[in-house]
Amino acid sequence: MKTIQVSAAIIIKENKILATQRGYGEFKNGWEFPGGKIEEGETAEQALIREINEELNVSIEIKSKLKIVEYNYPGFHLTMHCFLCIITSGTLTLKEHKSARWLCKEELDVVNWLPADREVISELANISKEL
Q1: What are residue 5's DSSP bridge partners?
Q2: Is 117 helix (H, G, I), strand (E, B) or coil?
Q3: pTM
Q4: Cα separation values, 103 from 11, 33, 76, Å
Q5: Right CATH number for 3-124 from 3.30.70.20, 3.90.79.10, 3.60.140.10, 3.40.50.2000?
Q6: Closest CA to 55 of 100, 114, 14
Q7: pLDDT by residue (tens digit) across 9-57?
C-alpha cells in the first residue's frame, strides 16, 4: 500500500481552532486541518510552513508537535504530522479550500472531519487555552 506523508496545522487564535473544508479531490467537502504533502528533501515543519502559505496566504509559527496520526484509507496509508501553530502575518485567504471556520474546542464535532483528522480531536481537549 502506498504511504503518503503530510503535515497538518492545528492553528489556534483567540482560543479557537481553524477547520478548513476541502474544495477539491476525492475527499471534497470533508473538513480537515490545513496542510499538505511533504516533498522530498523537506522536513515536516518546512512542508507545513510552505503549504499553509500556499493554501491560506499566511505565515505561521510552529509552537510544538501535537502527534503523528497513522491512518489506513482504502487506497493508501496516511502518515500525518500534526503541529500546534499560530498565524504570525498575512490575511487568511482560502486558495484551495471551499470554506473555513474557527471553532472552540467544544464545537469541534459540528463539522464532518475526514477520518484521519478525527484522530486529532481527542488530543485537543488536553491543550492549553492559548498558545
Answers
A1: 79
A2: helix
A3: 0.93
A4: 11, 12, 29
A5: 3.90.79.10
A6: 100
A7: 999 999 899 999 998 888 899 999 999 999 999 999 999 999 999 999 9
